[in-house]
Amino acid sequence: MVSEANIFDLNQLRRSCSSCALGELCLPAGIDRTDLDRLDTTVRDKRTLDRGGTLYRDGDPFEALYVVRSGSLKTFVQDESGDVQILGFHLPGEIVGFDALALNRHVSQAEALERSSICELPYGRMQQVVSEVPALQRQLMRVISREVIEEH
């Protein structure tokens, strides 16, 4: 008979920030093990996008931030005449979705350039964890600051 203590949740292991190779590039960088475990409870199972797949569209409600786990994304805006302006290319470890923080809706689109894996950080749950984990709050502010600097 197998004891419950020896049963592993493979989905949890696959999505775990502590087991991810991007830990030093992503939000968990510099966070201790206990706080990392709390962050793990916030991350939804990873999502896979095929090439050309859309992560979010202009006007979609803001529900989460997203971490590129593998593959690559482009973010862009498209005007009424169909002209596209690329805002950025996003590689593993980068976070996308900050465009929706101000208005609670996305003002750009994100599309996979190749088959890509994405970790979803539901914003409501993440806000709760961030309020309880000061190191995570500091790291999130660093990531947002880095985004602002790159925009300039």
Give an overview of the whole structure.
It is a single chain. The chain has helices spanning 10-15, 33-40, 123-132, 134-151; strands at residues 44-49, 54-56, 64-70, 73-78, 84-90, 95-96, 109-112, 116-122. It is of the alpha+beta class and 152 residues long. It has a single domain (29-151), classed as Sandwich (Jelly Rolls). The strands form two sheets. A four-stranded antiparallel β-sheet has the order 1-8-3-6. A four-stranded antiparallel β-sheet has the order 2-7-4-5, with no helix packed on it. A hairpin with a 5-residue loop joins strand 4 and strand 5 (84-90). Helix 3 packs across helix 4 (134-151).
Can you give me a brief rundown of this structure?
With 152 residues, the chain is of the alpha+beta class.
Count up the domains: 1
Rg: 16 Å
- The string of secondary-structure elements, in order, is HHEEEEEEEEHH
- Assign the CATH architecture: Sandwich
Largest sheet: 4 strands, antiparallel
Name the CATH homologous superfamily.
Jelly Rolls
Helix content: 25-40%
How far apart the termini lie comes to: 60 Å
Tally of alpha and pi helices: 4
What is the CATH topology assignment?
Jelly Rolls
Mean pLDDT: 77
Number of strands: 8
Strand content: 25-35%
Summing up helix and strand content along with how strands pair, one would put the structural category as alpha+beta
Low-confidence stretches: 1-15
State the shape: globular
Strand order of the largest sheet: 1-8-3-6
Q: Could you name the CATH class? A: Mainly Beta
